[in-house]
Amino acid sequence: MLAPVNVSMESLNLMTLAPMLIPIVGALLILVIDLFKSNLDKSLYVMLSILFLLMDFGVLFESAGLFAEGGTIMGVFDVMLIDGLAIIAQFIIVGTSMLFIPLALTNTRFHEFSYPEFFALFLFMISGFQFMVSTDNLILVFVGLETASLALYTLIAMHNRAKSFEAAVKYFTMGALAAGFYSFGSMIFYALTGSVEINQIAAVLEANQYADIGYVLIAVTFMLASFGFKLSLVPFHTWAPDVYEGASAAMAGYMSIVPKIAAFIVVMRLFEFLIHSGVVWLEVILYIFVILTMTISNIWALVQTDVKRMLAYSSISHAGFVMSAVMIGTTQANSALLLYWVLFAFTNLGSFSMLWISRAKNTDNAAESDHSYNKFAGLIKTSPVMASFMGLFMLSLAGIPPFALFWGKLYLISSAVTSGYTVLALIMALNSAIAGYYYLKLIVYMFMKDPVVGKDGHVYTVNSTLSLQVIVGFAAIGTIFAVAFINPLLEFITAFAYNSGY
After folding, report:
1. pLDDT at 107
2. CA 24, CA 123: separation in Å to the nearest integer?
3. In sequence order, which residues have a C-beta less than 8 Å from that of residue 21 and are 6 or more positions away?
4. Which one in 42, 342, 403, 459 has a CA-CA gap of 20 to 30 Å to 225?
5. 246 vs 49, 126, 241, 309, 370, CA distance in Å?
């Protein structure tokens, strides 16, 4: 008979679970409130969601302090891992989520925001992403990934339009395929090493001197395919433009930022030890992925007639751009990845918020396209402030100095040059120049063409509530004055990335 094992609460270190449990409690509270009192105003649920995310943010600051004092924190039978990457990624996830939730406060009553389930699912999704980045256990990564993904599929479908249902089904199908690939890859790693923890997998493979390199190749191929879907890397990107088009502009903007940073953190943990171990073929494969994703998505973006689809291909290109940091694998490259994504979050938040402000449930050209270029023609004459803001965000995405994303691109390209990837740096710079064309195309429509006004005389800014104006203003300030906080932000990121152990 086995003796009972006494586990002390202190050894579990449940503090590591606190950031993930807070949004879960918030989601359950919203559902309970609706159970007892239905049909409450959506602003209550928006405020509750923001309140719980603020609490989450506060706990993350406390975790950052503990990490700064004592280094990496393990908890819950060493399944939870709070290191520098986990803390920074959670700051990005929670901070960006807080900025996207107020986009629900629109003048036009869109279907999904009338349900408290929308906000509950949103909080469950955030918790899933936090679990993904706060562990190196492949099983818990999978649990977090599927928790977040299942909530996200439903949120897309709740937009209640024909294209939304189509987008949700496509995303679900591709997500299920990616989950299958991930499971197969994890299974092979477990068969090779007897562990599902990335650190332990790395140690065992190194001790065996990668004797089973063929099986490692198969496992990594499955993992690459899985995260290729999640990061929409070419050729696994085919779902992304259709899903972005079918989702609401707010949800499309969110998908372009938060799910990808969570996936990037897992990819950094999983692939960088293989690259550092001298698995040359992996570096070559990632090199091809990066170049194809940047270049092909830029070419497709050039020929788009819908602004949201153009931004979808743009997001694919940015994901390829940032994937280069994983291939380079240095601390400078990892810091560049995180800095780039923070700055990208500001700019993309602004871009998709402007699309959301200009989206009405029924517009004259809705049957053809929700956000055709013609819709923005002559916007400087009909809505000068909106045209100026949209132009600002396009210049930032193009990497024009001194706006936010210029500094992210500069630091990422410099990390490539420092590590000896001169040809890659030239390709990255060339792709930035190509991307400038389709961003400037929208600016030309807004500033140099005559306006196309709807039959009812409206100029497509029906959702411009005070809350949305504040969010756009915040994104614009972050985009314009990024140069002022680049150095402190970079120092903060580098301090945590350097001490993460990856």
Report:
1. 59
2. 6
3. 127
4. 342
5. 25, 21, 9, 10, 10
Q: How far apart are CA 106 and CA 463, in angstroms?
A: 5
Tokens 């930032």 label which residue? 396
Side-chain half-sphere of 499: how many Cα atoms within 13 Å? 18
Instruction: Assess contact for 350 and 475: CB atoms under 8 A.
Output: yes
> Which residues are registered as beta bridge partners of 135?
80
Closest CA to 468 of 154, 318, 257, 248: 248
Position 187 confidence tier, pLDDT thresholds 50, 70, 90: very high
Residue 112 parent element (H or E): none
d(CA 215, CA 222): 11
Domain ranges of the chain: 15-498
Higher pLDDT, 107 or 373: 373
Length of the chain: 502
Residue carrying the six token digits 């479908």:
157
Task: For 167-218, give the DSSP string.
Answer: HHHHHHHHHHHHHHHHHHHHHHHHHHHS--BHHHHHHHHHHTTTTTHHHHHH
336: burial class by Cβ within 10 Å (0-12, 13-18, 19+)? buried
Q: So what's the pLDDT on residue 130?
A: 92
Q: Which residue blocks in 231-306 are alpha helix, DSSP H?
A: 239-246, 249-255, 258-276, 280-302
Instruction: With a cut of 60, say whether residue 366 has pLDDT above it.
Output: no
pLDDT tens-digit profile of 392-430?
888 888 888 888 888 888 999 999 999 888 999 999 999
Q: Is 228 helix (H, G, I), strand (E, B) or coil?
A: helix
SS3 at position 484: helix
Which positions ≥6 away from 326 have C-beta within 8 Å?
264, 267, 268, 271, 272, 286, 333, 337
